[in-house]
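Section 3.1: Structural characterization of target chains.
Under the original work plan, the team committed to producing a structural model for every single-chain target entering the pipeline before any wet-lab resources were allocated. The record below documents one such target. The sequence was received from the expression subgroup and is listed exactly as submitted; it comprises 321 residues.
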Amino acid sequence: MSSLRFEEVQVLLAEPATDLRGRLRDALLKEGFRNVIDTGNLSVVVGALRNDAIDLVIGDTRMPEGDLSEVIYDLRHGGIGDNPFTVVIALVSNPTPERIKRVVNSGADDVLIKPFTPKDLTKRVLLLTESRKRFVVTTDYIGPDRRTKPRSGGMVVPLIQVPNPLNMRVFGQFNREGVARSIETTSKVINEQKIDRHAYQIKWLTDRIAPKELVDTDEGTVILPGEVREHIEKLLHVAEDMSRRIRKTRFAHLTEMCLTLRDMVKKLHADPTQIDAFDLVCLKKLAVVVENSFQRERDEAEGAGDRKETMPVGREWKLKG
């Protein structure tokens, strides 16, 4: 790594153990990093991501004030700062299946299990500088694609090349205005993919909230079982997120329909123990209309050869030796 120019890279190192934090900082400085913010507090992490141009986050998921995985998830979904594509290496202490699943689902680029050596960390940084995995978007996830092979059945989810600030800094390609344009362009692609995934999810959830046996009649009151109430909770989250994202996309003409669906779900959510059967009928019909509308958009985009391109995201290079 010594031949590479890391002095311009902005690093945020979050490690609650003072001794380990010092060793990791020293290792980064030895490899040529000069701009390293180190902390043991989650609030400092959130503040830095909001206010500073951070290129790389290295942090333990278990911080005194909370779980870094939640911060990473918010970062990827545009809830913190101006760059959802900050490179993230998550460190995990006392790994359990639940903890590993949580950090993987957060959208971190890489996961490093403790104990590890400083050399292990710098090697991971080098690999991410060389080549960052393309991102995938689902209704619950934004982050690097970790699939070893495509899933059988279901829709094909495209992969998205995202900006790599490590690569840009190292090779002198980091131009603030150019990076801002790249972030904006790529964010738009991801936003539209998220909305498209939501359209599928809405149909899937409504089929379970309002199965055929419940919507054959439009009279009377339906008492829903507990698992269906959980689906309503999820559907409300999806409908609200979809309504928030849709206004500045190519799907903007479908905004009013999505807002109507959101309001219908809010009504169901207000008292899921007693739901009018007619409301379920309306919800089911509207979900079909939403899905069909988005399917037409997909078909038209494919027919026009609509390719979602992003700005240049960094120079590709390969390790030697």
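The mean pLDDT is 86.
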